[in-house]
Amino acid sequence: MACLQGKTAIITGSSSGIGQGIAKRFGREGASVVIDYVSHPEGAEATKKEIEAAGGKVVTVQADITTRENREKLIAEAWKAFGFVDILVNNAGTEKRSDFWEMKEEDYDRVMDVNLKSAVFLTQAFVQRLRDAKRQGRIINISSVHEDTAFPGFIAYCCSKGGLRMFMRNLAVELGPLGITVNNIAPGAIATPINKGLLENKEELDALLANVPLHRMGTPEDVAGMAVFLASEDAGYVTGSTFVVDGGLMRSYHEQ
Fold it and tell me: Which of 38, 65, 173, 211 is the most exposed place for a label (fewest CB within 10 A)?
């Protein structure tokens, strides 16, 4: 039996990359899936068709969750479509490379809004619904190895992921009495569109892979497997932790 049968999940930023991989896997595991996207409707539709072809239930919602209006829209449409949601995957993310002394305030604000603030307040809206309905649930944040490991040139990104780590730890304590678990997945180097520049630069890619004990980039499917575990009943007593999916990168990482 599929391990997420009878569950419903919202996955933000799930028209491509890690979010798309999680959406597809959740659908195969029996969950009803809400695909959130902003600017890639073709990716959302392709994911929807694949889940439906496997017999799953899925809807797509275009919602830029950096705004309150769109967060409320996403939650409302998810509940309208399926009657309830008990899994939230905060996956939407962005990054902006810059030396610290040249970093623009608007770039910092954008990264923090997408990676941290939107996750905080979408989670708040999700929890309010669960609390009112007296339902238990799962919250899974897609963080990064850089919630803990320095990444020169990406100050805003690291700050957002470090904030997501403490958000998860605090929330696990606060929501535990409600039967709601909260955990982070910290991917390392994953082959997704956000890493397009790296994947096309052989010198940089080879230098990175030299730091990965498994000697390969990760895939969205590698992350999706961990997400399925954390969303399942097998993880019912697991909360307040970060689960690293990085091929061993954190244990051997150093800047060239």
Answer: 173
Dist. CA 110–CA 246, nearest whole Å? 26
Note the pLDDT tens digit of each residue in 169-208. Answer: 999 999 999 999 999 999 999 988 777 777 778 888 888 8
User: Does an H or E element contain 181, and which?
Assistant: strand 180-187
In the set 108, 157, 237, 253, the catalytic residue is 157
Which amino acid, residue 207?
A
Q: Which of 76, 95, 83 shows the shortest CA–CA distance to 13?
A: 95
Q: In the chain, which ranges are continuous DSSP H helix? A: 17-28, 41-53, 68-82, 105-112, 118-133, 155-175, 196-199, 202-209, 220-231, 249-252
**Superfamily (CATH) of domain 8-252:** NAD(P)-binding Rossmann-like Domain (3.40.50.720)
The closest of 176, 87, 165 to 123, measured between CA atoms, is 87
R_g of the chain, CA atoms, integer Å: 18
Q: What percent of the chain has pLDDT over 70?
A: 98
Query: Mean pLDDT score of the chain, rounded to an integer?
Result: 94
In the prediction, which pLDDT does 61 show? Answer: 98
d(CA 251, CA 133): 43
Q: What is the pLDDT of residues 136-151, one digit of tens each?
A: 999 999 999 999 999 9
157 among known catalytic residues: yes
